């Protein structure tokens, strides 16, 4: 009986250790609900360059799938620049949404899926044909979603989605 208890304890510790290793983010990244995020606030790129920046880190531009995730990203971005008296466009972050394939139909770059959750303020996205095909967390409006030209310079917001499904191991 004692051996079973010891083995159960060892197995449970291995599972906990494995789960913790699965949720560990790279240095400089922030964890939230099975994803790691990099707010690359020290560099600015066009959308294409931001996409390459994230890809080089085995990530993609952030794909926002819930209100909780959206509020987390807005709050964290705002805290990065809390010392700045006026939030300027220069403090904005790229997200991975675009309507460059079909005007007015917004999809995520990472997998070409439609945006299910959205958080557009009134008046956005702008009218079709305005060449504002890329999604940004817009600093001057408390990091709400805005559509902008893809060539402007903004900070990349990269995401790595963690696979924690494999963390539940059953032995027996």
UniProtKB/TrEMBL annotation:
Show the InterPro entries listed in the entry: C-type_lectin-like, C-type_lectin-like/link_sf, Ca-Dep_Lectins_ImmuneDev, CTDL_fold
Q: Which residues form the signal peptide?
A: 1-19
Q: Where is the C-type lectin domain?
A: 32-159
- Which UniProt keywords are present, listed alphabetically? Signal
Taxonomic superkingdom:
Eukaryota
User: Which protein are we looking at?
Assistant: C-type lectin domain-containing protein
Classification of source organism = Eukaryota, Metazoa, Spiralia, Lophotrochozoa, Mollusca
């Amino acid at each position: 009986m004692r051996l079973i208890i010891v083995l159960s304890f060892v197995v449970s510790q291995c599972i906990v250790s494995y789960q913790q290793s699965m949720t560990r983010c790279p240095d400089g990244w922030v964890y939230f609900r099975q994803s790691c995020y990099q707010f690359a606030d020290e560099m600015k790129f066009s959308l294409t360059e931001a996409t390459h920046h994230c890809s080089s880190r085995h990530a993609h531009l952030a794909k926002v799938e819930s209100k909780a995730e959206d509020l987390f990203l807005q709050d964290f971005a705002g805290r990065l620049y809390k010392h700045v008296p006026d939030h300027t466009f220069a403090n904005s972050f790229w997200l991975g949404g675009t309507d460059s394939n079909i005007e007015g139909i917004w999809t995520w770059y990472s997998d070409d899926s439609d945006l299910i959750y959205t958080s557009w303020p009134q008046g956005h996205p702008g009218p079709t044909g305005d060449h504002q095909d890329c999604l940004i967390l817009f600093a001057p409006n408390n990091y709400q979603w805005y559509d902008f030209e893809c060539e402007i310079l903004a900070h990349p917001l990269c995401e790595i989605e963690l696979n924690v499904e494999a963390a539940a191991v059953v032995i027996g």
